[in-house]
Amino acid sequence: MTEPEAVASTRLARAIEVVESGIQACEAYGRPDLKARLTAARRSLDDPAVHVVVAGEFKQGKSSLVNALVGATVCPVDDDVATAVPTYVRHGAEPSANLLLEGDPPSREPIAMDGFRDYAIETGPRVSPSGAPVAGVEVRLPRKLLANGLVLVDTPGVGGLGSLHAAASLAAIAMADAVVFVTDASQELTASEIEFLQQARSLCPTVVCALTKIDFYPAWRKIRDLDAGHLAQVGGVDIIPVSSTLRAQAAKLNNTALNTESGFPDLVRWLTERVGRGAANQVAANAAGDVIDACDQISAQFAAEREALADPKAAQRVLDDLNAAKARLDGLRAATAKWSQTLTDGIADLNSDIDHDLKARIRQILQEADEAIEQSDPADTWPQMEAWLRSRTSYELLANYTLLRQRAESLSEEVAAHFRQASGQVLDELSVYNPVALVSEQRVDHKIDLERMTVGKQAWVALKSAYGGILMFTMLGALTGITLGPIAFGIGLVMGHKGLRDEKKRQLQQRQQQARNAVRRYCDEVTFVMNKDSRDTLRRIQRELRDYYAGLAEELVRSNAEALGAANEAVRRTQAERQARLKDIDAELARLRQLRERAAAVRK
User: Fold this and answer.
1) pTM for this one?
2) For the residues of 484-534, what is the DSSP string, one character each?
3) Which of 117, 210, 296, 511 has a CA that sits 20 to 30 A from residue 337's CA?
4) Mean pLDDT in the chain?
């Protein structure tokens, strides 16, 4: 274990100790409300998950990199297959595998270790043995790298920023703690890769670029330098050259020098120091903060009682202060409290803004689709148009969801400021789901006659127009006494050609209009589904924020009531009882102060 890993592990262990001591204190002082909060903090310490998304274009070595990091073949790496659903690799006491099934939240279905890879590839089944749709694969391994909560997420290939896979990867990145972007040493970063990196970095600031296959391309140093120049424009993203082949060979031969040459020690160091240690420290600090808050609330009730006992003349002032605090706290619980009104108004405004943003994005898609349809024949381009429509819609919906998340975080901070409490714990739980699945569920029902006129049909239209022209001019000649002869046949050919051209134009316009209608129906259906999903998400966010701050208000009310009751009882005590009680209170305050100091040391 490296020094940073040891520090993070020690800090987690110390946090567990102080949280368990805090739980015991809450039990001893009869505060089940504070105990519930510390119990939740204790659970977060047991599984401090840190998600690292591994993303990149197809066949760049993402799966091989994940396998090399954990020293096991958990992700399929065959040349003729590609990853289709995310694979989550996390720590477990024994090797095991689960299928992650679609749902809110996703459920798990156990599967044999030798069969889970089939579900991760494009040619594999998309439903579990029980018949439920598969959203991903989870693999647990007993690996030291994963022991502190690190979760590696192998994603499908990007395929360009506008692709459906790119939208899915960006949705995963929006919820990630860090990103490892994978590109091989065959060529410098492409424009689409740089664009994807810029978008990824806006969603998750902790990003590193892994340059793979350096054992296969002798000119990898030149490519590294070129990529470093491109990454400087993205915002100073580090680049680490690695070779999964050398890493595997080093593990097989137990060769330290070869392992160093593979570059993986640098990548592991980045993961542990920049990602794992920071996340573990944050979880420990948050838990320690909960213990500090619990100690402060319990100490406050003892402090009020002690002041009343130590100076009977000051007892009335203490009671007045506590009664005033009670009135303020009762107002904090009311629906008219400023934090509650801010939350209610903020959710209403956010609902309106997100709906307007979605409609504006859908309008832009419709405009681009109309322009593309106008310049092409759906009989030739509809399959490409349908794929573009899905990926373009996914990208815009992801942007809409990202805006929702950012605005929800800002709202939570505003509510927290009014409540005068930190909001970090709630923000960690405010997940905004991946909208790509909603797009995939909607079918593009085009109802377009994509068949061009056959040769026989064209001949029939031409003959019909030609016959009509010949007949018309022959009759005209008979009426005027002019014999047209062969000229009538020439005129018929000209009119036949014109009739055929007009019919082709009519059918093209009909197909274009049908294509426009199909795009609009699809966008209307997606908008309908997305509006419902975003409203549900905002309602969930509102409930979580409301319940969290209402719970804090209840804790403060309980603490004030305990202090008020203790102060009232102190007024009625005799001098001897006061002296004895003062000794007990001083001992309790000393214990709480000692626990608070331990928690503060963990929080630093």
Assistant:
1) 0.62
2) -THHHHHHHHHHHHHHHHHHHHHHHHHHHHHHHHHHHHHHHHHHHHHHHHH
3) 296
4) 77
